[in-house]
């Protein structure tokens, strides 16, 4: 048989071979922090061979391997090969961020007339939980199975009263489940003993062409959002809910990410590209599809559903080639994009935004789903 025929046959059989994968979960060591604290990793595999690896440091998604239209697998999330990489300065690769994802203006807010001051780690503002946010702690973990037998891992972190300036003892959990429909389900819960702001999200950077394989500017994205929240020079929302119609923020129909990313528009200039919260259509609190991203060369498709009222669309504007990721690959400008499902930034200081205050006796509960598929090239 010729090389050409063998290659064609292998490509045709590749999707069939995926069905032979062993569905389940495997735990192993991922090394130790500089403090000596051990970190574990959990690899979830479905019956098609899709793999999600989660590490307990920051409850991070360390890798996510999915097939392209030819059945060839690649890791499509940015990150590092070892724990040492995650302890260096990095832009929250794969992490769960909290207690409050995104920014709080001037690191201050009030609850029932009582003022609270947070650690400032983003100029004059608090960002993603502060200096020692949920991304920089080790979460406890346990293996689980969904009702349909899908492998899952549930991670828990207990944040002490006063940690990073936030009131109340907060117990937060995230459960990652990998289904045979090639879905990654992210289910968050939290409870508190004092009123406190809570806004958990995941900060995974995607590149559907494969991590480290160039920019994401040719990816096409569609967002189910008629409005977004404009920001000031510190990337704090002004309070306005601005219509996207007719401008570079309008992704109600699919557009290439890079098509208008350098537009001569104030908000684009402030974010150095897209780094803005979109006000999602549909009823918050109900799971509905809010985004679809495609990458032509691989044929990979990502569909995002969420219960959240907003999503931060970020296009890796601050990646600058100084970070070396997996396999020593250099992560350059716009080598990844994020879709951080969330409540709006600075909500504790914005009375007109959906509230993020969790009270004792109530349970914070929200779900986001990433569904992967392919389309013909």
Please state the CA-atom Rg, rounded to the nearest Å: 20 Å
First-to-last CA distance: 27 Å
Structure class: mainly beta
Instruction: Provide the number of structural domains.
Output: 1
Task: Report the count of strand segments.
Answer: 29
> Treating each run of at least 4 consecutive H or I residues as one helix, how many helices?
3
Describe the protein's architecture and organization.
- This protein has helices spanning 3-18, 83-86, 266-271, and strands at residues 24-32, 38-45, 51-55, 60-67, 73-75, 96-97, 103-104, 108-111, 114-117, 126-127, 140-145, 151-159, 170-178, 183-192, 196-197, 201-202, 220-223, 225-229, 242-243, 255-256, 275-280, 288-294, 300-306, 310-314, 323-324, 330-331, 338-342, 357-358, 364-374.
- With 377 residues, it is mainly beta.
- It has one domain (3-374): Beta-galactosidase, Chain A, domain 5, CATH 2.70.98.
- Strands 11-12-13-14-29-23-22-17-20 form a 9-stranded antiparallel β-sheet, with no helix packed on it. A 5-stranded antiparallel β-sheet has the order 1-2-3-4-5, with no helix packed on it. Strands 19-18-21-24-27 form a 5-stranded antiparallel β-sheet, with no helix packed on it.
- Strand 3 and strand 4 (60-67) form a beta hairpin.
- The radius of gyration is 20 Å and the shape is globular.
């Amino acid at each position: 048989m010729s090389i050409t025929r063998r290659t064609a046959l292998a490509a045709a059989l590749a999707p069939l071979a995926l069905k032979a994968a062993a569905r389940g979960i495997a735990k192993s060591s991922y090394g130790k922090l500089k403090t000596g604290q051990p970190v574990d990793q959990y690899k979830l595999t479905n019956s098609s061979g899709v793999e999600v690896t989660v590490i307990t440091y920051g409850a991070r998604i360390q890798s996510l391997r999915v097939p392209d239209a030819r059945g060839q697998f690649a890791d499509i999330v940015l990150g590092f090969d070892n724990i040492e990489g995650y302890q260096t300065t990095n832009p929250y690769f794969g992490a769960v961020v909290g207690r409050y994802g995104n920014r709080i203006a001037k690191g201050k807010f009030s609850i029932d007339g009582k003022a609270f001051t947070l650690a400032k780690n983003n100029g004059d503002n608090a960002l993603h939980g502060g200096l020692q946010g949920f991304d920089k702690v080790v979460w406890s973990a346990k293996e689980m199975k969904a009702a349909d037998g899908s492998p899952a891992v549930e991670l828990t972190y207990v944040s002490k009263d006063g940690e990073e300036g936030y009131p109340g003892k907060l117990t937060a959990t995230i459960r990652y489940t990998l289904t045979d429909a090639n879905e990654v389900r992210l289910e968050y819960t939290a409870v508190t003993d004092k009123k406190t702001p809570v806004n958990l999200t995941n900060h995974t950077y995607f590149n559907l062409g494969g991590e480290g394989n160039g920019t994401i500017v040719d990816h096409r994205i569609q967002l189910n959002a008629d409005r977004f929240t404009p920001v000031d020079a510190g990337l704090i929302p002004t309070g306005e809910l601005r219509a996207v119609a007719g401008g570079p923020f309008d992704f109600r129909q699919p557009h290439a990410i890079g098509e208008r990313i350098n537009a001569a528009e104030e908000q684009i200039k402030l974010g150095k590209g897209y780094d803005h919260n979109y006000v999602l259509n549909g009823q918050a609190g109900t799971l509905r599809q809010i985004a679809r991203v495609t990458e032509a060369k691989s044929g990979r498709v990502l569909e995002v559903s969420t219960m959240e009222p907003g999503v931060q669309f970020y296009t890796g504007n601050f990646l600058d080639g100084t970070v070396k990721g997996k396999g020593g690959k250099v992560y350059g400008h716009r080598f990844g994009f994020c879709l951080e499902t969330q409540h709006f930034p600075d909500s504790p200081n914005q009375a007109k935004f959906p509230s993020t205050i969790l009270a004792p006796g109530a349970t914070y509960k929200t779900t986001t789903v990433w569904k992967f598929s392919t389309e013909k090239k």
